[in-house]
Amino acid sequence: xxxxxxxxxxxxxxxxxxxxxxxxxxxxxxxxxxxxxxxxxxxxxxxxxxxxxxxxxxxxxxxxxxxxxxxxxxxxxxxxxxxxxxxxxxxxxxxxxxxxxxxxxxxxxxxxxxxxxxxxxxxxxxxxxxxxxxxxxxxxxxxxxxxxxxxxxxxxxxxxxxxxxxxxxxxxxxxxxxxxxxxxxxxxxxxxxxxxxxxxxxxxxxxxxxxxxxxxxxxxxxxxxxxxxxxxxxxxxxxxxxxxxxxxxxxxxxxxxxxxxxxxxxxxxxxxxxxxxxxxxxxxxxxxxxxxxxxxxxxxxxxxxxxxxxxxxxxxxxxxxxxxxxxxxxxxxxxxxxxxxxxxxxxxxxxxxxxxxxxxxxxxxxxxxxxxxxxxxxxxxxxxxxxxxxxxxxxxxxxxxxxxxxxxxxxxxxxxxxxxxxxxxxxxxxxxxxxxxxxxxxxxxxxxxxxxxxxxxxxxxxxxxxxxxxxxxxxxxxxxxxxxxxxxxxxxxxxxxxxxxxxxxxxxxxxxxxxxxxxxxxxxxxxxxxxxxxxxxxxxxxxxxxxxxxxxxxxxxxxxxxxxxxxxxxxxxxxxxxxxxxxxxxxxxxxxxxxxxxxxxxxxxxxxxxxxxxxxxxxxxxxxxxxxxxxxxxxxxxxxxxxxxxxxxx
Length: 650
What we know:
Layout: E1 2-11, E2 14-24, E3 29-33, H1 40-47, E4 55-59, E5 66-69, H2 81-86, H3 90-108, H4 115-133, H5 139-149, H6 166-180, E6 184-188, H7 196-208, E7 212-216, H8 220-226, E8 229-234, E9 237-241, H9 245-280, H10 287-299, E10 328-337, E11 340-350, E12 355-360, H11 366-374, E13 380-385, E14 391-394, H12 408-413, H13 424-430, H14 447-458, E15 465-469, H15 477-489, E16 493-497, H16 501-504, E17 510-515, E18 518-523, H17 526-550, H18 565-603, H19 606-609, H20 612-649
Parallel strand pairs: 3-7, 3-8, 5-6, 6-7, 12-16, 12-17, 14-15, 15-16
Antiparallel strand pairs: 1-2, 1-4, 8-9, 10-11, 10-13, 17-18
């Protein structure tokens, strides 16, 4: 579908891509991975046609539609949320306008027997059929479903987009892209502005309803759930694996290990051969054997081990000065803007050494709570910062606050004081800004590099309370892992606002959930919280159905709590559809299990154990089986709920 051939990109004589070739197929779901600055965003821009390579070409069919979501964009503020989302269906409005125009013409025409009149009738019929195929009857429902999936409420639909933050407006742009259903979706860090619930919705949408997808994301749980192919960019080359990210990491390690073993064996063989040649080169009795060995040496195809980018971030927070036992205590804390209450009645106690997460939908008050602690805004109730608490604060927009005209070195030099100024070069080197990189202007840095630079400022003086607001946005996976370990090792207190489940997993022991104007405390890790929330949501749904059924004067189905004939028919249709889907999935699961069994039998043989392709195929099959099992579970739960509801309402 898209063919990338001989792609080369150079910046200042340094190659970013070096003669890269690969193909994007229909229904591919590709994770583009690599270190910050490796060229992931540049690759998406080139495929989107927004940037030209130094050499090479990108070929695709003329009628191919591409949707591109950049990390940053300029957004229009002249429409409501609904009207802006409706721009995704401009082709429907254009077709409707043409139909209206033809209908208006028919009203005034009287030459009923003419060929021209018959041609107009035919064109109107064709246009009406096309409009129907475009989904003109249900586009409004699609818009509502997509906007609500991305976290908007119905009350937001008629609000001007200018009232929303940049993150929320990015969601509107994402909604428009998803609604357009392009042949290829190019998404650059789509989860940066989403909360956990919206990310899970987007995962499901991309996995089940999108066409080809190529995305850059440093959210491991997200790309594992969505993608089935991983392309790594490293040192100007690509490494292409037809598996998800977690499996790719394993296969990449296995491949490098196999290469290294094969390389070492070959080197020993070469050394032995060269030693034989040197030893018997001048002995006439061995001349034939020597010549044979020389020819043998010339024919050896030299094994090369893939060059690895081993530059590594060295991140360690300074020892935390001892603070009081309770760095943060709030009693009845609240914050309102006019009539709008963000949250109220918050009683929170954070102990020294605790690592806690603040989660919830955007706009529910997480960053507002942090600003209360930082004293940046006023509030109601009481908030006490403990004895000897020294706060290190990483704001969500920290990277955007950098002066883009300064160099990396000058950025740190301007905030460093005392003896630390003599160690700036060493510090920059530890953060992979060594050598010439320290003289780069901030404006040419990638999003991840700017985040790393902002992180350095946080380390310039010892603190004992770290407040990190979305610290992982734009960080590559290895850097995220290093940051996570550094926070784990930090002996102070940590408050982290994040939507990255994998990053929070094993890091925090308490979760504060923001939503509906209240803050709820949940003991345990992030997945404990998500599991409890899923169970509670199911109970809430059941409770709402029960309340709706028994509420006086109201019913979700009618005054006498009985379904009409048409509604019963629709219920039965839905149940039949689910039963068919379950049966199809069961058949698919059986086929996949048999194929996996066959592969595992092949892998148990010496020949199969050394065949990398079999491992890749096995990984893909396991991924497909997991997806089929998840779908089967989802359909089965939905079927049970439908049957239960049907019995209660008939």
